[in-house]
Design brief:
Number of strands: 0
Distance between the termini: 64 Å
Number of domains: 1
Order of helices and strands: HHHHHHHHH
CATH class: Mainly Alpha
Length: about 230
């Protein structure tokens, strides 16, 4: 067997791929579902925190800053293991799927809050004054005048962070979440062949490449630069 044939047998073994492809495809469904939930929950909660911080109520702002700093500083894997193995000792048991969702959604919300807060503070004071001069209250001005502008400014870092966080769903394999990597690792162990891992790599590219392209389109379509 030549070196090239050995390479093909190790990474593209047709028999192994055919046998384990269904399991890996089921992992794709889990990864997609997790990614969608994480993005929706993380972005929504992060936006809420940024808006609450705009009221500049010091105790609340202090709590939000501490929350954002902690969840941006701690490694995701440490948080996943801490919650998955630590909470049962105090009588709280969550499924591996729920643990991964909660941790990654909280991390994304922390980054989203800081990104959106930077966008809100970058909006000129005149925009606030213009909104208030038309009879809008503070909350209405924030929601209808300031926040849309802040979100457009924040689109590039928000989309990049969302992609980075959703790719971390692969960390769920350490607690048994049946995602793409978990299914591929299991298949590789049983088959003694690296073909399932190669199929997993292809699945990640097929799954996340459209997301990357969509994020680039959103940046070009909605990104607004101040004059």
């Amino acid at each position: 067997m030549s070196s090239f044939e050995r390479f093909l047998d190790t990474f593209f073994n047709a028999t192994v791929l055919e046998k384990y492809a269904p399991a890996i495809l089921s992992g794709v469904g889990v990864t997609v579902w997790l990614s969608i939930l994480i993005i929706i929950a993380g972005m929504a909660f992060g936006t809420l925190l940024a808006c609450l911080r705009a009221y500049r109520f010091k105790p609340l702002s202090f709590f939000i800053v501490i929350y954002a700093d902690i969840f941006r500083a701690l490694p995701p894997l440490v948080m996943i293991l801490l919650i998955f193995f630590g909470l049962p000792s105090v009588g709280i048991t969550l499924s591996s799927f729920m643990v991964l969702f909660v941790v990654l959604a909280l991390i994304l919300s922390a980054f989203a809050e800081e990104i959106l807060w930077a966008g809100i503070t970058s909006i000129e004071k005149g925009q606030w004054e213009a909104g208030r001069s038309t009879g809008l209250g503070f909350t209405q001005t924030l929601i209808f005048v300031v926040l849309p502008q802040a979100m457009r400014l924040a689109i590039p870092p928000l989309t990049n962070r969302a992609i980075a966080i959703t790719k971390m769903t692969a960390l769920g394999t350490v607690i048994g979440v049946p995602d793409i990597l978990n299914q591929a690792s299991t298949a590789q162990s049983f088959s003694g062949n690296a073909s399932p891992l190669m199929l997993a790599a292809v699945a990640y590219v097929v799954l996340f490449l459209p997301f990357v392209i969509l994020s680039r389109w959103l940046e070009n379509r909605y990104f607004w630069r101040k004059a």
